[in-house]
Amino acid sequence: MGVSSITIRGVQKRFDEVEALRGIDLSIEKGTVLGLLGPNGAGKTTLIRILTTLMQPDEGSATIEGFDVVEHADEVRKIIGLAGQYAAVDENLTGRENLIMVGRLYHLSRAEAATRAAELLIQFDLDEAADRSLKTYSGGMRRRLDLAASLVNRPPVLFLDEPTTGLDPQSRLALWKIIRELVDDGTTVLLTTQYLEEAERMAHRIVVIDRGLVLASGTPAELKSSLVDILELHLADIAQVNKATAAVRAAGGIDMQVNLGEQLITVALIEGPGMLQKIIRSLDIARVELADLTVRHPSLDDVFLKLTGHKAEV
């Protein structure tokens, strides 16, 4: 592993009786994207708030580019950017005025702030709308402006808290492209998202947390390789579901999920390829009719379901 940009050691946070973080240990390499996944209430936003100096941990420590987030909070704020799922911009101002205002808050001169605003408006393809009120911007345009605002001070570390939530596919792809370009230029990104496809496409490494604990960490390929292939059985007649599940269980299919609405039974092939033939034979003996049968490799959604007990909430 290369040089760490963000280091988190034993971070804990409690709210009354709720343990939001129960000893988080993470390290994020410079110039990479770490995808932070977890269900609602897992502790993702609490961790982001600690790392961005908006909240202090009860125990443990965290450093960003060598600066402790508690002891050197002012220095940390100078080198980070934060963009979330809700655009933190003023809709009564134009795009240009918003960016100039942020520049002035970072103590840039009026000329420096105007120059930086112009650069970002071009970079984020907002130059033609620069002098329009934000009230006329689409959701995707506002999100791009919010991300641009987080980059006014050229931070080496960027926190993106569900930045594409609610965006249409085209706007999401445009934002992904911008983030990739930032990372190619050396920016370190911590990304929280509920879109598993986004995590798989954008993140070099993924960490899954739930109830304040790290459940798994690795590259997308490493996490998926920890699971076996999945057999999908689409029933021709939902009335046969009990007969089908009994047949699968008799063939060793103990790791099984049933979706009545889709008339679907999914089975983890824990005994390897030979288990497929056993299940097919057992279903044939039980005279279960199938509309379709598919074997697929595990996805990140399967990993998430296995670790947290339910699918990602989108």
Fill in the keyword field for this structure.
alpha/beta, 2 domains, Alpha-Beta Plaits, Rossmann fold, 11 helices, 14 strands, six-stranded mixed β-sheet, four-stranded antiparallel β-sheet, 314 residues, single chain
CATH architecture of the largest domain: 3-Layer(aba) Sandwich
CATH superfamily of the largest domain: P-loop containing nucleotide triphosphate hydrolases
Q: How would you write the strand order of the largest sheet?
A: 6-7-8-3-9-10
Distance between the termini: 32 Å
Class based on secondary structure composition and strand pairing: alpha/beta
Summarize the main sheet: 6 strands, mixed
What share of the residues lie within helices? 25-40%
Order of helices and strands: EEEHEEHEHHHEHEHEEHEHEEHEH
Mean pLDDT: 92
Radius of gyration: 24 Å
Q: How would the global form be characterised? A: elongated
Q: What's the level 1 CATH class of the largest domain?
A: Alpha Beta
List segments where confidence is low: pLDDT < 50 over at least 5 consecutive residues.
none
**Whole-number tally of structural domains:** 2
The total beta strand count reads 14
What is the structure about, briefly put?
With 314 residues, the chain is of the alpha/beta class. It contains 11 helices and 14 strands.
